[in-house]
Amino acid sequence: MQDLLDSALARITAAGTAAELEAVRVEVLGRKGVLAQLSKDMGKLSADERAARGKFINTAKQSLEGAYEELKSKFEAEALAKRLDSEWLDLTVPAPGARPGSLHPITQIQWEIEDLFRSLGFSVLDGPEVETEHHNFDALNIPPDHPARDMQDTFWLEGHHLLRTHTSPVQVRGMEKLGPPLRMIAPGRVFRNESVDASHEHTFYQLEGMMIDRNVSAGNLIYFMKTLLTAIFKREVTVRLRPGFFPFVEPGFELDIRCLICGGDGCPVCKQSGWVELLPCGLVNPHVLRMSGIDPNEWGGFAFGLGLTRLVMMRYAIDDIRWLQSGDLRFLRQF
Amino acid sequence: MKFSYRWIREFVPGLEMPAQALERLITMKTAECEGIETAGALLAGAAVAKVQAVQPIEGFHNQIATVDAGPYGQKTVVCGASNCRAGITTVYVPLGLKKVSGVMSDGMLASAAELEINRDHAGILELDGTQELPAADQIIEIDNKSITHRPDLWGHHGMAREVAAITGQPLRDPVDLSLLPAGESPVQVEIEDFGLCPRYSALVFENVTVQPSPLWLQARLTAVGLNPINNIVDLTNFIMAELAQPMHAFDRAKLQGSVISARPARAGETILALNDESYELNPANLVIADGAGPIALAGVIGGKDSAISAATTSIVLESANFQASGIRKTSSALKLRTDASMRFEKAQDPHNTVRALARALELLPVLSPGIRLVGGMADCSRELSVPAPIWLNLPWLARKLGRTLETAEVRRILESLEFGVTETDAENFSVTVPSWRATKDVAMPDDLVEEVGRMIGYDSIAPTPPAVLCAPSYDPPEREFLRGVKRHLAAQGFTEVSNYSFISEEEARRFGFAVESHVRVLNPIAAGQELMRTSLLPGIYRNIVENAKHFEHFQLFETGREIHKVPGQKPAERTHAMAAVFSKDDGRAGLLELKRAAEGLAPGLHVRPAAPNAWEHTMRAAELWWQGRARAAKRIGRLSELHPNLVEGGRGAVLDIDLELLRELQPEAVKYAAVRRFPTSVFDLSILTAERELAATLELEIRRLGGDLAEAVEYVREFQGPPLPEGRKSVSFRVVAGAPDRTLSSADIIGIRTRIIDGLNSLGYELRA
Ligand SMILES: [Zn+2]
């Protein structure tokens, strides 16, 4: 019996592959295996012999199964190691599929500034690119034959329509639609009939905004612009106002910021003046309020215009405005 | 507009600060200065000199001149002017020693052009010995755009008034109205429409000598950008530059009759203008006419036939006022902008006409000695109304500016600008507006906010946070939607481009768009930009062609507005997205990439093959249909490859989506549906069919045959080639069968499968094992 057990153990440990081991398992531990044979004639034995045999079988089973499991684990571990080894992968190869694209730098700046204004409770509105003379000029206190129309060379379309020269018409539409109190900005594409060169475009982007409320003062405007520009430029900005003429505001201002390049000492960017002209603004002209159905005795406000194209050029130090509308991916993929 | 520092100082004698400091103050308080230039820089060291002798230089046309250069002593200079000869009096400029034509020259003899007195550079300036040299001047250049609302700032006296107010110095008025003569004028003025010509004043002079103006006057005109011509014309320009009142002088001998009328031109009338151009006129143009016809285009330019010439001995001096918008219309219709029209279109003060004539009465005897006034002044005017005073509430003013104000300070500022101030009570002023600010500039209290604010200085206002109502902002849904589309396309590998809204007729034709269906730009900036785009395609196509020069493969997109003609109405705008893929392969991957991008925007969209447009690959054009929240699917866009004739060296595929329709179809908020509890079964089917059979057709048939219990039908793959016969392909689908309320039995599943297979067979399809 002991020999039988020893030879069975020897056969298990001799198995060289998982398949051989499985064959041995069937022969030794299977239903017709060695152990099964040993327990077959138990019925013929005496009670004592039976007890001894049973004990022997149990011990033998444990030792055979132990040997089997050990070897099986070893084979499995070897197989796994082999599979893992065979699955070596070069992760330095480029991933398939498209590279991420990118958003136009104007879009990026526009979103950034829209989000900034929204955090200040402003609505973001847009209007048509094709405008009526009324909304683009008359409602903004620029009647026909007003010299101010020269300031904004206009693309005229058949049927007495025009391409908006500013997004101010959206302010008119905003006032008409939402009424006071009102905080809104209107970013968008505008058109001026100007020859294109490195610093002039006939198609560009601007953002105009207004706040209409009770008792809005020039002091409020200065505070607001300073806060806004500090957020846009991500550093403390010093502003100054000087007179500027824009028919839809009274008084009108040109807002300059202290030159961010030289800090005010004078450099080529600020033409040695220490200041850079940044945006037009002013207190909304009562005529404009009245034309939009708002009582100027009760309400007042300020308005301003911000050149998005100009901001993009400033932020990325772009030397030629024509890149922006070029569709050239060598330029656009940088953003 | 150019301002002479010396001229301003004549009216503000107390002005002491240098031009640079003045320029900064003007910028902060009145109008934007663009810079300072020196006029007549060489005059600064110039001296009157007498040429004592000249001798030629062998081999050069230059000569050696020995001159008595006054304070500089005797000098030897090389001079190339042909009029350089012994005995003349000219101008010496010390420039240091320099070798010219092989000879050491110590300084130079200067022409009038070099001295910036006038434009004469034919020879060196010859003086008659009595004239003094003008002095160099500083010229402050003001941005015209910043004074479009200020008719008074188009003359030096107006700017001097600002300077006086800024510096607190007194202002001198160069005009003495007591010089104006009484009595009848030899000319009669008739004004047909006082709306177009509120006032026309004139004086008549005889015994006129037409000659060059004195050097100081020529230098002044040159310094501010005007061209000296002769004493009479120079006088009109000088007074215009001084008082902002344009004037005109006619040769009286050339006028027919003694009546001068201001009237609309008659149809067909023409005028030969001083610029030698002939203009055909119509009743929209106001003319000044004599008995024979137009002698000037009112407020714009004079006529050639009645112009001052060397032979002129008698003149009519016009000083008139014209309606701003009429002048502007005529000047822009004729594309003729003159110094006069530029001023009139700013709405000049009708009170100013006679001031200009009074000033002329003072200057003419100096410029044309012996000149005689004939009769009195002709002056035809509508009644000049006095504007109502403006009620200025001081606490309101302080609130508008956001700072406290001293009553006395407000009064001082307004009075320094010659506003009339009456204190009606402790808190209110009644303010009268001077006539030169009343034409359109100042009419309401808000205008006075500007006057006080700019003079007190905006830098004196402390930034104050606004106290506003706390309210959530209104946000139109379009904006966030557009952002989502852009983000999606960028994340899918597309780079955003931005193209012009303009296209050319040629581009429209290239894509088969009818040219006449486009909104036309009446004044395009350049050829090739005459139509408004009705599709983003021409721009995107340009992007493909241009970028193909630099890249083997690229993906780009644009969102923008199409502009469509609507008969009798404002053109309609429609926001579209167009994405494109360029590649150098068989083009399949690019089209599928675009389809994937579209499916991300419209999950579950259907592609339907479409008849190709002329610009499309004949076999690769499809429409995109999507149901979204609607009852039936709508066509939201198009997916196609560009025709190979349009793209060289590769393939371009484009996706066009109507974003407004896409947004309208956005499903409503998702409603939660219970997760199913009963298991489903899955089986695959492979269908053998013709090569060009659409997968979507097969899928639709399987769905129809499977009925409700076929919960999903998914395309798995397709296969072509041996062992399949030529022209056939095998398409595999996976069918998921299940029911919401029970587990299907195997009989149920066999039933579905059999139904589908039998159905497909009866439609003529073969099933592969
Ligand atoms: Zn600087």
Task: Please provide a written account of the structure.
- By secondary structure, chain A is an alpha+beta fold.
- Chain A has two domains: 2-86; 105-332, Bira Bifunctional Protein, Domain 2 (BirA Bifunctional Protein, domain 2).
- Chain A is 41% helix and 19% strand.
- Chain A is built from eleven helices and ten strands.
- Chain A has a seven-stranded mixed sheet, with helices on both faces. Chain A has a three-stranded antiparallel sheet with strand order 2-4-3.
- The longest helix of chain A is centred in the first third of the chain and has 40 residues, at 47-86.
- Chain A is rod-shaped.
- In chain B, α10 (407-416) packs across α11 and α17 (695-706) crosses α18.
- In chain B, the strands form nine sheets. Chain B has a seven-stranded mixed sheet with strand order 23-26-27-31-30-29-28, sandwiched between helices.
- Chain B is 25% helix and 29% strand.
- The model of chain B has no long low-confidence stretch (mean pLDDT 94).
- Chain B is elongated and about 125 Å long.
- Chain B folds into six domains: 2-40 and 137-167, Phenylalanyl-tRNA Synthetase, Chain B, domain 1 (2-Layer Sandwich), CATH 3.30.56; 41-109, OB fold (Dihydrolipoamide Acetyltransferase, E2P); 177-381, Phenylalanyl-trna Synthetase, Chain B, domain 3 (Phenylalanyl-tRNA Synthetase, Chain B, domain 3); 390-459, Phenylalanyl-tRNA Synthetase, Chain B, domain 1; 478-664, Bira Bifunctional Protein, Domain 2 (BirA Bifunctional Protein, domain 2), CATH 3.30.930.10; 681-768, 2-Layer Sandwich (Alpha-Beta Plaits).
- Chain B has 769 residues and is of the alpha+beta class.
- The chains are: A alpha+beta (335), B alpha+beta (769).
- At the A-B interface, α5, β1, β3, β5 and β6 of A face α2, α6, α9, α11 and α12 of B.
